[in-house]
Amino acid sequence: MERIRSLYLHVPFCTWVCKYCDFNTYAVLEGLIPAYTEALVAEIRAAAQRYPVGPLDTIFFGGGTPSLLTTDQLQRLLGAISDAIGIAPDAEVSLEANPGNVTDGAAAGWLAAGITRLSIGVQALHPGALRFLERLHSGEEALDAVTVARRAGFGNVNCDLLYGIPGVSLPEWLSTLDRMLALRPTHLSAYELTVEPSTRLHQEVSRGEVTMPDAEEQLGQYWAAAERLERGGFTHYEISNWATPGFECRHNLTYWQYRPYLGCGAGAHSLLRLEDGASLRFWNRKGPHAYIRAAHESGDAVDGREVLSPDRARGEAAMIGIRLLRGTDAAQGFEPERRQLVGAGLLVQERDRVRLTTRGVELANQVGATFLQDLG
């Protein structure tokens, strides 16, 4: 079994759950955070005994809003990880943060606790867009958060943005990018605002209260962002991600390169690579109360698991790997599929690797699904 070098910790608590969010998140449960922190410690210690894990090259605190944790709670978790699993000296340790939580004191505390990379959920800057998304911060607060992080000493700062927001024009979107670039973050993620079935946004669209931009407008904003960011010195290394040289997200590369990872926390997923080429995927209980009870009782909160055959694992590796714009060698062995996609102008073959064309990027989900055809 391949050794695990990456750990994801899910913190499912939010002050407010935005109407477009379909993550495993909960509002008005912040009082559970102390008990939840101890449940994470219990799961981390148990996982160190169950799986071949560590020392860790990447750790990612995601959510939810991990920046709701106190510095002491973060130190408690990172101390438990260090003691039970081990953390490599040059590990990338990421924390997702809402702009409103990024104060001088908090940022200094995060850095002292061992966080090396801050990912700030900016999403938008224009007042109308922020109101539509139900974000609790202003554009100025989002910009200030990046400045505060830099002032505290964070040399690795990501900003998450959304495009395709109803009512946001192309010039307004480009203005958002320009204002972000002026602050010189090291990484930018730009995601299309999608309407997920379980969200309040889906209900609004279904009732005709909201009309989403059409595909042409969304693609126009996407490619305009790609051009603007590349002119600003960023490399477009994954479909939705841009980085300055050397600042690609190492943790997310674990997923895109289909390497094993461990997930702790409510609803967290894990992937193990088995010696015969198969993979084992498993996931935790989603509800915070149920997760806390299970983790405290046994350190095991697993709610389900599935074994992926070697063929299925190879197909998933190809499907995910093509998201990297430099290409992937994971599609080897899928000769008919590669010929079909190259012939359709969606992939380019470069020796033992394939990479998406411009049209392929626009249809990446369909291209990726081709590698899973007939695999069950």
Q: Secondary-structure blueprint of this entry?
A:
Elements: E1 4-11, E2 13-14, E3 26-27, H1 33-50, E4 53-63, H2 71-84, E5 87-97, H3 104-113, E6 117-123, H4 127-133, H5 139-152, E7 157-163, H6 170-181, E8 187-192, H7 200-206, H8 215-231, E9 235-238, E10 241-243, H9 250-256, E11 262-264, E12 269-273, E13 279-284, H10 288-298, E14 302-308, H11 310-321, H12 335-343, E15 347-350, E16 353-356, H13 358-362, H14 364-370
Parallel strand pairs: 1-4, 1-11, 2-3, 4-5, 5-6, 6-7, 7-8
Antiparallel strand pairs: 8-10, 9-10, 12-13, 13-14, 15-16
Helix pairs in contact: 1-2, 1-10, 2-3, 3-5, 6-8, 11-14
What would your notes on this structure say?
The chain has 376 residues and is α/β, with parallel strands linked by helices. It is built from 14 helices and 16 strands. The strands form 4 sheets. A 9-stranded mixed β-sheet has the order 9-10-8-7-6-5-4-1-11, sandwiched between helices. Strands 12-13-14 form a 3-stranded antiparallel β-sheet. The radius of gyration is 21 Å and the shape is globular. The chain starts with a strand and ends in a 6-residue tail after the last helix.
